[in-house]
Write a structure and sequence with these properties.
about 250 residues, alpha/beta, Arc Repressor Mutant, subunit A, Rossmann fold, seven-stranded parallel beta sheet, three-stranded antiparallel beta sheet, 15 strands, about 20% strand, globular
Amino acid sequence: MLNNRQNKILKILGKNDQTSVIELSEKLNVSSVTIRQDLNFLEAEGLLKRVHGGAVLKDADDLNNRLGVNYEKKLRIAKKVASFVSEGETILIESGSVNVLLARELLKIKKVTIITTNVYIARQFRKNEQANIIILGGIYQHDSETLVGKITKTCIDLLNIDKAFIGIDGYSTESGFTLRDLFRAEISSYIIQKAKDVFVVSDSSKFGKTELTNICFPADIHHIATNDDLDLEFQEEFKKVGIDLILA
């Protein structure tokens, strides 16, 4: 777990995308040595990227850098969602920063088969010999480390999926659940059609936003997992259509 000061660093970065050791030292009233130690720790956890004199959150498609945005909320969601996974299940974890943290939580659960379209997520299990990992084939997207395309869909056809955990970039009542990437959206929609039980997993900052293309509507899924400060209008909307709303 992160300490209070480290969480504050992530909040500052979440607002500005970039900060310096001097700025953090002044805002948090600690020495530059302490700030450097914090930044080194946060970089090792995959929550930011160190640069000369400070730290950044860079490409929005780079999961390694998206983890630090709303980190505590995302971690709470991941911990709660992990409790819905039982030993012996075959689950698919698609992409998204909350799903990365979900993968880390599942390291604690033995005898689970993890299917993923994301290489970064698969790497969370590299030191866990108990987990069975299946990486689906396809065209490799370098920034997001996601696999997409016709080969990916063919791989999905070969598998039985108990539960699927899908990340999103936006949701609005009019447009449904949306993603900014057309190729990833195609695969997400296909997974949703094939899986027996579908969870949309995202922090609440994505709700009220509309991105490039639709992947599904609430009627197409079974669960939404997000943090407990989700706008009440959305909470009521999802409950009316029978969605299992999981608030962390």
